[in-house]
Structure formats: structure tokens, C-alpha cells
Amino acid sequence: MRPRSAHLLAVVALAALVALPGISAARSSPTTPPSSSTVLLTDAVPLPAGAVSHPLDGADRVGIVVTLPFADSAALTSLLNAVENPYSPLYHHFLTAPEFNAEFDPSSAAVDQVESELRAFGASDLAVGSDRATVSAVLTAEEVHALFGVELVQFGQDGAEPLYTSVGAPHLPSSLEGLVTGVGGLTDAANPDLRLAASEGPVRPLSDLRGPSDFVLNGTTQWFLGADFTQAYGATDLFPGGTIGPAGRYPTDIAVATLLASSYNESTNSDLPPWDPNVVYTYFNNSSSPAWPRPTLTGVPVTVNGVTPPLPGSLAAYNDTTGDEFENSLDLEMAGSLAPGAHLFNFYFAGSVIVAVTTVSDLADDFAADLGSALNYAYGGGLRLGVVSGSFGLPDLSDAAWNSDLVEAAATGVTVVIASGDQGNAPNSLTGRGDGQWPTWPATASFNTSGALAVGGVTLTLDGVPTTVWNGTSLNVTYDSNITGIAGMTAWWDNTGPQGTWAGSEGGLSEVTDEPAWQFNSAAQPAIAAAGDRQGASFLGRAEPDLAFPANTTLAYVLADRFGNLYFDILEGTSIAAPVLAGLLADEAAVLNTSFGYLDPALYRMGSYFAANPNSAADPFFDVTIGANYVFSAGTGWDATTGWGGFAAFPFYTALQNSTVTGYNYTGPTPGLTPPAPAPSAGFPLTAVVVIVVLGIAAAIALVVAFGRPKRPVYAQPPPWGPTAGYQQTPPWPSPQYPQPPPAGTGYRQPAPVGPGYPQPPPSAATFLCPYCGSARPAEPVRCPHCGAL
């Protein structure tokens, strides 16, 4: 997520949208009545209860994106399963982007038909996605009404600028029947307050650079550089001369992509460069080992809604009012520090798109345009795209265009790494953010065979002796090899500031996306069920984070003024963790000479193996068992603050080559849980069990194409109430935790504080519906007592 300044540079959230022009109640009839009965995956959300709405002016410009289905979905699903199955001959035999496009892209005739229909309804600024699976366009609100049969209305949001959404079920004209599976842009209600502004106080200048130092000591607080993490997590073991021996190498043939937007200046209404190359290159030169090759940097502007941002360069005398210059610089500096010699590509759309200067749109579709461009860019020079890193988030949703990109990433061997979020599961009133208390998209966008790896945050202390102290006037960032390892690690949670500034690692269960099979059938499931119980989740959703890496007290170079003076700041956020992991995975991909693609299933098999073999010396994971955020606590194994934790580079390299580990079949339950009921025998022959399991798996595979199915309740009975957030029923009282009756009308949705006197609830005893036979079954990964499926 976007970094938060921990010291002199405070960032504050402002409204993300400008006022929409005049309101008009007039609405004409569609020129062509919609007649399709196709169920579309859309971003449309219902109006909030009690919201006062008004129709958008018919002339308001709206950016929409329609998603087309890939060709030969059965073959594509088979491929996705095979490339991540360590026992398949196609394991890690990924397609290139051109191969994928040739085999699975929608036909040119289908794309032409969609474009023709959009033009017939008045669309402008049409653009076909790089894989031909999306077509974007700008239409007026009146044209959207004519095309999809919905009315766009605006509504207020606590005194901020209005948002918009659609009213009515969208349908397609018969001419598009079967050609479109999803529509984005029918609302911007998930758009967060993305514009960030620096406080008026000065930032610290980079000055008096003298003497060796690996990290900086400010009083008793360690401030870290990207190169410190390179050493702490053992990436140097994979470099030439490291523990790995002759196989050691730098990731000089690996491309790492970061996604975001360009800078923007509100006063001049102008898009600015996304980052200053002089700032980022100077960071590498000052802080990295002289022996490491320097990363190369390339900025790739992405056209969205007909607007193309400028190339990287100096912002001169202009001030970025979005915070994107900081974010882009941080992402590149962290990824490049962890992956010396890698080729870094930043894909970005115009900052003016975020603030909706001329066209309103769904930012999820805009980020999907970034990702699609990254997957289909002509890297050349023997480079292969290994990892994509994203440090942004919106309230939980499902986006057809993004889901389509995730499928291509999985098929072409690209690992998508996304920051899990910085809200620490605290309510907006305590964080000053607008993401809500539960997990954010796109970290939640993870399915059975494609998706994102969600990265939470930890607070580190390192072994080593800092050789300098920041004294208010001088700072030393020169590299040395003083770090010997990680001395301590806790879940990242910062509630030391005033209300409205709290932050921390985000986790929990998605309220939109179902839990993938690889997560359900893992040793993480008991902790996931307990987290859902505490969250008050009504169904088993995708749980996150998967891993966790450093997320605070990190020093980054953020800007240069018009005189060439560099400035730095101390930042915090899972925006640090995501590119750190991306760089580390680039190192692993280089020495193994392979890509990983959708890494989540393998991670959970690995985590399950080492959970079943807890004393294994080969365990690469740094299990985080200390700390908590506002709702969840760290604990042994997977937890909803830090996932499986981080990992050490060399043991992870070794584990990735061990098919016993990467192909581990967890049969549960976790030690300490009640043993599962025996499988049925008389009256239910084993052959019938096998047939049901096979049919169930086939059904699950068939559902992959419908990526973001609507939320559905799967509790067979209401969950027992506990000291938790979100239950839609009043708790029993009096009780030790709540001796007084709850305030009327609140639903008692605020979580109990975490800490002494508020222990975590035991693993959930609630039952869920079996995805194979539909009968009630335990939440733990044990065999269903009715059909025998795991």
C-alpha cells in the first residue's frame, strides 16, 4: 500500500474525485433495448442505505472496460493446473506472452464486433488491451444508459466529493451476446482517497555523506536501507561467491515490473513524470555494495481514457500532489536493492486519471491496464518478466479485467505480488484511511489457479552494530557488510500516533472472493477458520496475507528539487514489503533458471509440509509469533497478520527444488485438533466416494472461469457469538468482556481490543457447506463425513 511517513513528512489523505458537473434528471430511452440475459461480472455496488442520489448529467464522461472471454477455456484451465503441479510433465513449462496470445486471445472478429458496437453507441477513445481480452472506451453517462440499460447516479460520502454507481441490472445488447463476460466502470464507489499531500514542514535533506554504515541508528530506533534487507534475508547467498557456490548469479536477465500512476500537480492541472531517474540511481549508488551490478530503470507510460502520461524525468519546480513520486521511487529502490542487476520497469497511467479531471472511471480497471501492459511488453534482450509488484489497494471487489490479466500471468510464469494493506484491520476512524476494516483488493484476488500473492508487514531489528547516528544534520548511507542476520521480528502495528494515523499489517478473509482449494486444503485452515470467526465472516473467503516482509522505518530517496538537491524520508507500509519480496523472488528465479508463475499453491504446500514437520532444519520460513494488529494476533504457523512469515533465500531455494515439499499433500488435521470422523463405509462404497471427489474437482475447475463469484453465505448455522467484530446479532450480556449492554443500533460491530484480557477465540466450531456434496462439514481440512472429499 502507499507508504506513510513515520517522521517529519506526514502524508494526509484528501478527496480522490473532483465534483461532477451539473445534475440533470432528464433521461431518454435506450436507442437499442438491451436484450441479453448474460450474467455479467461488474464492479457495480448498491447505493448505501439512506444515501441521497441524483442522476449524473447525461454529458458526464465515464471510462468503461469490457472484458472478453479467452478462447478454448477448457484447454486454458488444463494448462493452468499443469504448470503448477510438480508431478506434471508441464510443471513450470510456461508459455511466452506471444504464445499465450496466439493460443488463447479472443479472435480478431470478436474484438472487431465489440469495438463496432461500442462505436455505434457513441464511444470514443477506444483501446484494445495488449492481449485483446479487454476493450476500453469513454462514453457519456447517457450512452452508458443506452448500452447497458442502467442509470448512473451520484451520491455523497461524508461531506467529500460525490461518488457514482449504477442502478439496475446491466445487460448487453443481443449483438454482444457471448462476446463480453464483464464490465468495469459502472461505479467508482471503491475508489479510495488516493491523493496524498506532504505537510508544510521540510523533509530531511541528504547531506554530509561520509563514513561506512549499513543501517542508521536514530536514538534506539533502527532505520533501514533496501540493501540491509538484501543481507538480512540472505539474498547475498544466491549471488556469485555466496553460499550457493558456482550456481550463484545476479538476476541480470530478469525483468521486474512495478505498477502505479504518474505524478500530478493540482494547481497547474498537469501530469508530471512518475519519478526522477537521478533520485533512484543515486540511491543505488550510495546504498548498495560496490560489488553489485546496478539495476536498469525503464518507465512505460500506459494510456488510459485517452490520456498518456510523460516519461520519467525531473519534476523541476513542480510539486507532486498525489504522492506517486514517493511511491514509485520507493518501489523501484526496494526491488532494485534486493535484485542487483535486474531490469526494473515501471508501468503507470496518468495521475490526472486518479483525480478524474475529465473522465470518471473505476481505478481497478486502470490498474488492470498497467498489469496487462506489463504482461505483454516487448522486453527484448533475452529478458523475461519474472515478477510484478503492486503497492496499492481498493476496498474488496472483483474486477473482470484484472482477473483476466491474472490468468495470463499464471500461464506465462509471472508472479504477481501485492501489498496486503496498511490499515491493520482498524476502523477508518483510527487510521484516517477509506479502505475499510477488512482485506483490500487486489491482494484478495486469488483463485484456484491464478491470482496474487498477498504480502503483509513485519517490524524488524537486525544483528549488527550501526556505525553512525542521524544527528539532525548529517546522514550516512554508505554500504558496508555489517549485518549478520535478523535479531527480532514482530507483526507490524503502529498505534503510537494520534487517532487517524494508526497503521499496520492487514489480514483476514475476503468478503467477495471464495477461499481457493489450495488454501482450504492446507495446514493454515484452522487459523483461517478462527480468523473468520473473529472477523464475523459469513462465508469462507480467500484469507490473507500469504507472507510478510519489512514494512516500516525504511529510508528512501523520494525527490530532487530544481537545484538537484536530493531529499529522503523514513517511510512505513506494506508498500515496502511487496517490492522487497518481488526483488527476492527475482533472485530465486535467476539461480533456478525458471519462473514461478502462480506461487500461492506451492507456498501453502510448503507451509503445510513444515507445519507437519515442525522441527525440520530445512524450514525456510521466519515464523512470526509476536505482535498483533487491531483485531488479529501473530501465532505459530499461518496467521492473519503475517501469513507464513518471511523466508530466508537459500533454504527457500533448496525447498523449491524438493518435490516432497512443493508437492506435499496435506491430509490434516493440524496436531491438537479433534481427529476427523471416519469416512463412511457400508451403504456408501469407496468407488462412489472417488466418483464424487472427481466430479467435485471437475466442477471446481469449471468454475475457475467465473473468477469473482458473488459472495454467498455458506454457514450451515449461525456462528456462535464471541468477542469479535462484524456479527449481525447482539452479544449475550452481561459477560466478562461486555458487562454493560451494547449501544443501541450499533450491532456491536467494533472488535474487542487485542491484548491481555482479550484472548483469541479457539478455532471455529462452526460448520460450512462442503463444496463437493453440499452437506455440513467442519471448517478444518479434514475429510467430509458425508462424501469423503478432503
Report what the structure shows.
With about 800 residues, this protein is α+β, with helices and mostly antiparallel strands. The chain folds into 2 domains: about 5-10 and about 205-505 and about 545-660, Peptidase S8/S53 domain (Rossmann fold, 3-Layer(aba) Sandwich); about 15-70 and about 100-185, no CATH class. About 25% of the residues lie in helices and about 20% in strands. The protein contains 18 helices and 37 strands. Strands 15, 18, 19, 21, 23, 25, 26 and 31 form an 8-stranded mixed sheet that branches. Strands 3, 5, 6, 7, 10 and 20 form a 6-stranded mixed sheet that branches. Strands 1, 12, 32 and 33 form a 4-stranded antiparallel sheet that branches. Helix 6 runs parallel beside helix 7 (about 325-340), helix 7 runs parallel beside helix 14 (about 575-590) and helix 9 runs parallel beside helix 10. The longest helix has 19 residues, at about 575-590. It is globular and about 65 Å long.
What's the total number of strands?
37
Radius of gyration: 25 Å
Please give the count of helices: 18
Distance separating the two termini: 35 Å
CATH topology of the largest domain: Rossmann fold
At the first level of CATH, the class of the largest domain is Alpha Beta
Question: What is the CATH architecture annotation of the largest domain?
Answer: 3-Layer(aba) Sandwich
Shape: globular
pLDDT < 50 runs, ≥5 residues: 4-36, 194-219, 670-766
* Percentage of residues in helical conformation: 10-25%
The description of the largest β-sheet is: 8 strands, mixed
The whole-number mean of residue pLDDT values reads 79
Structural class: alpha+beta
Which homologous superfamily in CATH is the superfamily of the largest domain?
Answer: Peptidase S8/S53 domain
Measured by DSSP, the beta-strand proportion falls in: 15-25%
* Domain unit count: 2
